[in-house]
Each structure stands twice: as C-alpha cells, then as structure tokens.
Automatic annotation (TrEMBL), chain B:
Residues 267-481 form the Histidine kinase domain. Residues 181-234 form the HAMP domain. This is histidine kinase. It is found in: Membrane. GO terms for molecular function: phosphorelay response regulator activity; phosphorelay sensor kinase activity; protein kinase activator activity. Its EC number is 2.7.13.3.
Length: 151, 484
C-alpha cells in the first residue's frame, strides 16, 4: 500500500457514501477524495481549489468519474484532464448508471482508460470497486506527478 | 386508294375535293350543252333540207314531165350557192339520172333503189324525195349534205366552252385556296398548338380563335379545356406544396419528439436507477454493518426491499431496450441468423440452471435486417423459451426456418409450460404477463420489444401454444429486407 489516493467525482450523496464504503472495503489505506460536480473536480485537479491545493495531484492514483454530473459533465471533465500535460497521464475510469452506447464510445474517444456500469446489485458493485482499486492502485503503474512536471 | 387518302394533308384533301367536284360539274355541263346543240343543229339541218327539197321538187315537176333538161339543170344549179349541199340529183320515173349538180367532186349520183340509205349516213345527210305532179309521181329528187359546218360549229362551241371552263377552274382554284385557308388554317393552328402543348407541357399556350362558327367554337372549347388542365395542374402543385409543408412540419415535430424521448430515456436510465441503487446498496450495507441488530423478520423485509429494487432495475432496463429499438435507426444487412442463435444459446447455457438442454438450430438460416435489433429480439425469444421450460425434465428448444412466398418464417419452439391461447391478445403488449411472478419472473416487456423489432422490419410475429405443451413463436421477415 503506497497510499495512492482515489478521486471520486460523484454528485449523488448516496452514491458517494456507497462508493467510499466499497472502496474502503477494497483498500483501507487509500485516501478517497470526493468531489460533487465537474467544476469542483477540475478546480481541485488544476489547483484552483483553495481548500485542497494541488499537491494532492502527486499522490493521485485513480480518478473515478461519473458520466452524468451537474454543471460540467463527466465527459467534459475527462476532456479537461486529457487536454493538460499536467493531468493527461492520470488513469480515469468512467462510471455510469446507464449503458448508453453513445456515452461509452465518446468516453473512449476522449481517452478514458476504462468504463464501467454501476451494478444495481450492491454486492456486485462492491466487487467492481474492489477489482478497480486492486488493479489501478496495485497492479497498474503510474508516473509520479513530479516526474511529469520535469519532462 | 383509301389508304393513301388518309395520309394526305388536310389542305390537299380540301383542295382536291373542291377542284374535282367543280371540274366534274363544268365538264358535265359542257358535255350536255354540246350534246343538245348537236341535236338541235341536226334537226335544223334536216328541216332546212326538207324545205329546200320540197321547193325543188315542186319547181322541177313540170320540167320532168316534159323532159326539159335545160330547165332542170338550171333549177339544180341554183343550189350551188348553198355550201352545205354536196350533191343533188333528179331522177325520172325509171330511175335514170336526168340532171345532177356538176362541179362537185363527190358528185356521183347513187342509183335509186331499195338499198339507198336516207337520213344521217356517216358524215353525210341523204334525202330522197318523190317529185309529184297532180298527186302522180313523175320522178325523184336526191339531196345529200355534208356535216362539215356542224362539225365546225361544234368545234367552236367546244373551244368556247373549254375556255370558259378553264377560266372558271382557275377562278375555282383561287376560291378553293381561299376556302381551304378559311377551313383548314384554324384546324392546322389548333393542331399545332395541341402538339406544342403536348411537347412542352406548357399549358399557358392558347390556340388562336377567330369567328364564331363551328371551328371557332372548337378552338374556344379547346382553350377552355387547356385552361381547366392548367388550373388543375396549379391546384395539384399547390396541394403538393402544402402537403410537403405539412410533411416537413410533421417531420420536424417528430424529430423533436424523438429528441425529447431520447433525452427522457437518457435521464430515466440515470435518474431512476440511482435511487434504486441507493435502496439496494444501503440495504446491503445495513445487512452487513448492522445485521446483528436485526431479527429474522427484519432480515426478510430487508431482502424483499433489495429484491424489489433489483426487479425494478430490470424493468427500467427492459424499457430502455424497448425505447432504443423503437428509435434507433436501422442498418439493414444480410445476417447469418443460425450463427447468431448459436451465440445466444451459448450465453443462455452459461447462465442457466441445471436442466439438461437440447438445442436444435437449423444451420444456414439467413435473414436481412438490423443485426443489433434482431439480436435483441431473438435473445428475448430464446430467453423466454429457456425460462418457460425450466421446470421440464429435459428442455428442448428448436429454431427452424421456412420460406413462405416473399417471407422467411423463423419458428422458435420450446417444450415448456406454454400459455393459454385465450390471452393471446395480451401477449405482445408491454407490462402484460400471462404468468405470476412466483411462477416465472419477468418484466412483461420482452415480447413487446420483440414485436417492435419485427414491426420495424416490416415483418410479423405470431404465437401458438397449448398449456403444458410448449409454445411456438413464428417471426416472419420480408425476404429481400425491402421496406414493405
């Protein structure tokens, strides 16, 4: 456990709680940061958020991004992440509650690393979260944010 | 002959007809005039000669009795002055020639006998008259006259008549040409106009009309007809335009409705699922984190809450698929249905129960249609066959196809519980179920979706069953895949 944190962008408070619970059950030591809408997420990532400065970017290991978000949609957040050299290396997993084929295609076109449909069954959802956390935090390797800046 | 007539131009026909009739009339008039003139002249000649002969006979009777040849000859010689007299002879009682008109080359006197012809003989008129004195025949007088003068007369008559005839004919040609112009010109113009209208489809052209006779009326009627056609054309165009506008308006309304529907189902899929997931998720969390504090009844209620939310999620999924197959655009292609069914059967066997299953899928079935939609349809049919035969000792699912005219009929058959044919009306209607949830789970949307897919392929679906004897669903699709 090298303490990589997970950014969860989810507008629904219920889903926030459920997602955090599932992720905690998968990896207790990984900090989970929750942002409620797309704008908040972008502010956080690009350091415009005074409360949580951008040093968090260094330890970020995974972004779980809901497709449907108020203000700035998940796909627009994804576009923002991919368009900046500071963040375009981040693993982004799109999460949706519907399986609209158009969303799936657009997400991959915009450079999503993965796309999952939230299972209606919470046990399955927990399994999904476990798999994701295990793979992206422990199996997968990401560059250090500091290394990204120096290149 | 009649055949050639028909190809003559109207102008020529009229001209020919006029001239022919006139020429015939003139000729007939001239011929009859000549004939009558001829007859009159002959009669006149005849009577003249008779008068002359009568006078001569009277004068020569005494001389004949006294055989005074001198007297006779002087009487005869007096005839010299008459040009038409060819010969004159005087015979005595015995028939000897007493005297004749000398100096005429034809001057042979015929012998008087029974063989002598009188009257018109060829070019000559002959006359034999007895010379009498006190009612006693003393001799005979012969006169012959040629018809040269008559012929000259006739000739003059003919040339005058033909001259006048020619003048009349020339005048007639002019008249006929005028007449032809009066009659045929409007007709020709009318036919030219008709041709131009037929060629250019320009119904604004009108035929020139002059006069109020039959031709004028014909032209007016023709123009009225063209006006009617023009008006009707305009009306047709107007109604087509307005139809197009209506169609356009409807199309935009429809596409707006479609977009709204799309937005609706998008938000339905997101927003309706979210609370369900919360219900289910917190139910699970409750059970896991606080399960110790719940008794069995509480745990059962919790289970029911979670099961209900899962069922509702299934319903939403089914509705989403139904709305998707209704609005999705179709991409028709030739599909290997047999392979598609094999894949579906494999998926079903992976998630299925322990009932031994026999699958018979006819190889080499090809259909034309949208492969995603048809997959949804056959997934539903096959899943139904699976579900409703789950309580059999051995499950048998068969898929066969056959050609029915311009349709290809695909039959999906199972040996399951079947359904009651009395409720066939409700079979393909969304949310209608023929089985209770405790018998067989389901949303009631599957067959409605199948029906929608088949209808969008311009096909048809029918079902037959007997309770406990299995069910058979027949999907009919157009062979060529054309739109109807």
């Amino acid at each position: 456990m090298d303490g990589h944190s997970i950014l969860v962008v989810e507008d629904n408070p219920d889903d926030q709680v459920l997602a955090v619970r599932a992720l905690k059950s998968a990896s207790e030591n990984s900090p989970v940061i929750v942002k409620e809408d797309g704008q908040e997420a972008l502010d956080f990532l690009f350091g415009n958020d005074a409360r949580q400065p951008c040093k968090d970017l260094d330890s970020l290991g995974l972004v779980l991004l809901d497709v449907k978000l108020p203000k700035v949609s998940g796909l627009e957040v994804l576009k923002g992440i991919r368009s900046s050299p500071l963040t375009n290396w981040l693993p982004v997993v799109m999460v949706t509650s519907s399986d609209e084929p158009a969303d799936l295609l657009n997400a991959y076109r915009l450079g999503a690393n993965s796309f999952i449909t939230k299972s209606i069954n919470y046990r399955e959802f927990t399994e999904q979260m476990k798999l994701l956390a295990r793979y992206w935090l422990f199996v997968n390797k990401v560059p250090k944010a500091g290394a990204v800046r120096s290149f | 002959m009649m055949g050639r007539w028909r190809y003559w131009r109207l102008k020529t026909k009229l001209l020919f007809l006029t001239l022919f009739t006139s020429a015939l009339g003139i000729t007939l008039v001239c011929a009859s005039l000549i004939f009558v003139e001829n007859q009159n002249y002959r009669k006149q000649l005849e009577s003249e000669l008779h008068v002359i002969a009568g006078i001569l006979a009277e004068q020569s009777a005494a001389a004949l009795v006294f055989e005074d040849n001198e007297q006779l000859s002087s009487i005869i010689t007096s005839l010299k002055r008459i040009d038409t007299i060819r010969q004159a002879c005087v015979y005595n009682q015995q028939g000897d020639v007493m005297t004749s008109l000398s100096g005429r080359p034809q001057g042979q006197c015929p012998s008087v006998g029974s063989s002598l012809e009188v009257g018109f003989v060829g070019d000559v008129y002959q006359l034999l008259m007895p010379v009498t004195l006190d009612n006693e025949v003393v001799g005979q007088l012969f006169l012959s006259s040629h018809l040269e003068v008559l012929r000259g007369h006739i000739r003059t008559f003919v040339s005058v008549a033909s001259g006048i005839g020619a003048v009349i004919l020339i005048a007639l040609v002019f008249l006929a040409l005028r007449l032809q112009r009066i009659v045929s010109e409007p007709i020709l113009k009318l036919s030219e106009t008709a041709e131009r209208i037929a060629q250019d489809h320009d119904y604004s052209i009108r035929a020139p009309v002059s006069g109020t006779d039959e031709l004028g009326r014909l032209g007016n009627t023709f123009n009225e007809m063209i006006s009617t056609i023009q008006q009707q054309n305009r009306r047709i165009l107007e109604s087509r335009d307005s139809l197009e506008r209506i169609v356009e308006a409807r199309t935009s309304e429809l596409s707006m409705a479609n977009r709204e529907l799309e937005a609706f189902s998008y938000s339905v899929s997101h927003d309706l699922r979210q609370p369900l997931r919360a219900v289910e998720g917190f139910g699970q969390a409750l059970e896991e984190d606080c399960g110790d504090q719940l008794n069995e009844i509480g745990k059962d209620y919790l289970k029911r809450i979670r099961a209900a939310s899962v069922r509702m999620a299934g319903l939403i999924d089914g509705l989403l698929v139904l709305s998707r197959v209704s609005r999705q655009s179709m991409e028709n292609q030739t599909i290997d249905l047999s392979q598609m069914l094999e894949e579906i059967a494999e998926e079903l066997q992976d998630i299925s129960d322990d009932v031994p299953t026999e699958i018979l899928i006819q190889p080499g079935m090809w259909v034309v249609g949208d492969s995603r939609m048809l997959r949804v349809a056959f997934q539903n049919l096959m899943a139904n066959a699976w579900k409703y035969s789950a309580k059999e000792e051995k499950r048998i699912v068969e898929v066969l196809s056959r050609r029915e005219g311009r349709w290809v009929a695909i039959e999906v058959r199972d040996n399951g519980v079947g359904f009651d044919m009395r409720y066939i009306d409700k079979l393909f209607v969304a949310f209608n179920r023929l089985h209770t949830p405790s018998e067989f789970g389901g949303t009631g949307i599957g067959l409605a979706t199948v029906y929608r897919v088949v209808r969008r392929h311009h096909g048809d679906i029918s079902a037959t069953s007997q309770l406990g004897e299995g069910a058979s669903f027949v999907v009919k699709l157009p062979v060529s895949g054309d739109q109807g």
